[in-house]
Structure of Allophanate hydrolase subunit 1:
Amino acid sequence: MSRRLLPSGETAVLVECDDLDEVLALHDALVADRRPGVIELVPAARTVLVGVDPDVLPLESAITWIRRVPPASPAAAAPADADAATIPVVYDGDDLAATAHLLGISTEALVAAHRAAAWRVAFAGFAPGFGYLVCDDWPYMVPRLDAPRTRVPAGSVALAGAFAGVYPRQSPGGWRLIGRTDAVLWDAQADPPALLTPGRRVRFEVAA
């Protein structure tokens, strides 16, 4: 695991990683060995931002900790199943049949694979409440739409590349839509406001 550490002001360190797998491993390790004074851990596709309270954990000490933190074991890193988010889905997305055809499988097989996958939130972005979901056993790479939609309805369940996601609000988007949910992805009055936070496990089920 290579780590390039870049101070970001006086209260944060940006850690550059080689790929998303390294980001996930580092984020899990930091969570498992979290120190007093760590305010936030923000993973992205190739980086992890570590925010600190310098009065509790000086930036130099944070850098030393990040360099020395050992890889987390799967048992230590994985959130408890009780913390998993379960999202009910109506699988009737506009792109469901076409996506299954692109992948060379039936729509039933695509829905079954999506439901069976043990997803986790790799990082958040694009819009408040949007989580990029990954799964070690997900076998498909789903091409984005050639022309993005100008309006994707809130609650749309979608696939792109190796990721799954749920649109928290109406917005443009080029992911392929396979279903929809009534789950609230972002609530500014909640703590935390996002349902899908980095590291959280996610399961999809057929809506009743």
About this structure: The radius of gyration is 18 Å. The CA atoms of residues 8 and 14 lie 6 Å apart. The longest strand covers residues 38-43. The chain has five helices and 13 strands.
